[in-house]
Amino acid sequence: MRAVVQRVTRASVTVSGRVVGAIERPGLAVLVGVTPGDGPAQVDYIARKVAELRILRDEQAAVDLGAPVLVVSQFTLYADTRKGRRPTWNAAAPGTVAQPLVDAVAEALRARGLEVATGEFGADMALELVNDGPVTILLESAPGG
User: Fold this and answer.
1) What is the percent of the chain where pLDDT is above 70?
2) Which residues are catalytic?
3) Is the CB of residue 4 less than 8 Å from the CB of residue 22?
4) Are 54 and 13 in contact (CB under 8 A)?
5) Secondary structure element (H or E) that encloses residue 8, with its range
6) What pLDDT digit, counting tens, does each position of 65-102 carry?
């Protein structure tokens, strides 16, 4: 599982002209990509890291500040661009595997007491955010744990 974590002052996801998820104060926008071998161990790792990364003001974590998190599924994090000009998505999990795991990341963050907004899985989404810093961090869980 991969996650791109961005410190933001605000962020929102729009589908077909309607906002489906938004955070209106400083927090984190998290793009989550899933591969077929991912499971509960990867969910726990990513959620813990997102919640506890000390990248917010005064080197605090989202759990320290009660900062909101916007979680958006992003299969393109597993793009393979090594050959040619067209990426392949073979390493990304199919929706039937990915959706429950992305949902589980959001739930694991909520279980840590965080306010979590989400995108709409499988939809054509427009993500708007103001990156603060900018701070952007790539997280990757080890396969199988």
Assistant:
1) 98
2) 74-76
3) no
4) no
5) strand 2-15
6) 999 999 999 999 999 999 999 999 999 999 999 999 99
